[in-house]
Each structure stands twice: as structure tokens, then as C-alpha cells.
């Protein structure tokens, strides 16, 4: 009887820990990645955060986002984006357009373009650099393009290996 009670308590404890781990995992998974309010890639290493979004004209829009996910007007920030073929990269400059910055030219043709975004708080300040591949395919699981995907389906594939 004592052995049965010990076994039942051990199983109950195992299920309790397992449920707590699952809840923690689900919570972490939900917030693993966030997109900006327009559905672009959210860069959180700077304050205010930066949303990188490719519009229907294939121009890059940059919005500054506060912690409440509200768009704030651009200040003195300096943004530079270099992307595409490394032997002949495309460099984008930005002009202010209302509450956002918009690139002077379109993203080059192709998909999965190596992209480097440099963000300076003001002219001459040290840059924060974000590197990623600009994959413009639609994510099959969430409503965003792959470069701004929030469902982390790529991470799940890696975990199965």
C-alpha cells in the first residue's frame, strides 16, 4: 500500500511539473516573435523600436514604435539599409513621409535577400545593426510575410532534427 501511494504521488508530481512546463512553453511560444502594427519585422534592440515593412510598391517603410505598439513620429534617427547581391548591393536612403520613413527606391528583384539595417539614434552616433534575410513569401501559418513571421514554424523544424 505504501509503495502504491508513493507511486501515485510521484506520478501526480510528474504531471504537475509537465503541465507547468507546457504552460510556460506555450506562453514563451506565443511571444517568441512580434510583428509591428503594419505587419513588418519588429527590431527591438533600439528605443523606440523600429518596424521594417516592405509595401506593395516594394519600398521599405520604417516606423518607430513605442512599448505600447503605437507609432511615434521619427526624430533624429538615421537609418541605412543595404540588401541584395553582396557583389553589387542595393543601398537604400530614406525620406520622412508623415509618421514614417520611406526608401528612395524599391527592393531589388529576388527573394531571401541578405539585408543589413543600421539604426543610429542621431547622425554620428554608434549604429545598432540588425541582419536578416528578406524573404518576401507569404507565411503559410500567420498573416505576415516570412521576414516578419510570428509563428516560429522554422524553429519547430529545427527542434525535430
Q: Describe it for me?
A:
- The structure is a single chain.
- The protein has two helices and ten strands, in the order H-E-E-E-E-E-E-E-E-E-E-H.
- With 161 residues, it is α+β, with helices and mostly antiparallel strands.
- The protein has a domain at 41-136: Sandwich (Immunoglobulin-like), CATH 2.60.40.
- Strands 1, 2, 3, 4, 7 and 8 form a six-stranded antiparallel sheet that branches.
- A hairpin with a 5-residue loop joins strand 3 and strand 4 (71-72).
- The protein starts with a helix and ends with a helix.
What order do the helices and strands come in, and which of them pair?
Blueprint: H1 2-30, E1 41-43, E2 49-54, E3 59-65, E4 71-72, E5 78-83, E6 90-92, E7 94-97, E8 100-106, E9 113-120, E10 127-134, H2 153-160
Antiparallel strand pairs: 1-2, 2-3, 3-4, 3-8, 5-6, 5-9, 7-8, 9-10
Amino acid at each position: 500500500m505504501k509503495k502504491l501511494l508513493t507511486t501515485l504521488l510521484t506520478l501526480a508530481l510528474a504531471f504537475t511539473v509537465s503541465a507547468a512546463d507546457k504552460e510556460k512553453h506555450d506562453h514563451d511560444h506565443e511571444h517568441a516573435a512580434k510583428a509591428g502594427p503594419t505587419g513588418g519585422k519588429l527590431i527591438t534592440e533600439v528605443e523606440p523600436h523600429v518596424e521594417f515593412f516592405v509595401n506593395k510598391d516594394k519600398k521599405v517603410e520604417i516606423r518607430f514604435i513605442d512599448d505600447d505598439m503605437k507609432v511615434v513620429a521619427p526624430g533624429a534617427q538615421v537609418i541605412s539599409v543595404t540588401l541584395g547581391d553582396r557583389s553589387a548591393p542595393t543601398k537604400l536612403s530614406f525620406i520622412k513621409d508623415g509618421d514614417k520613413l520611406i526608401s528612395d527606391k524599391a527592393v531589388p528583384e529576388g527573394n531571401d535577400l541578405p539585408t543589413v539595417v543600421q539604426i543610429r539614434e542621431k547622425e554620428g552616433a554608434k549604429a545598432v545593426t540588425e541582419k536578416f534575410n528578406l524573404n518576401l513569401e507569404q507565411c503559410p501559418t500567420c498573416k505576415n510575410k516570412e521576414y516578419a513571421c510570428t509563428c516560429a514554424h522554422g524553429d519547430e523544424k529545427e527542434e525535430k532534427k
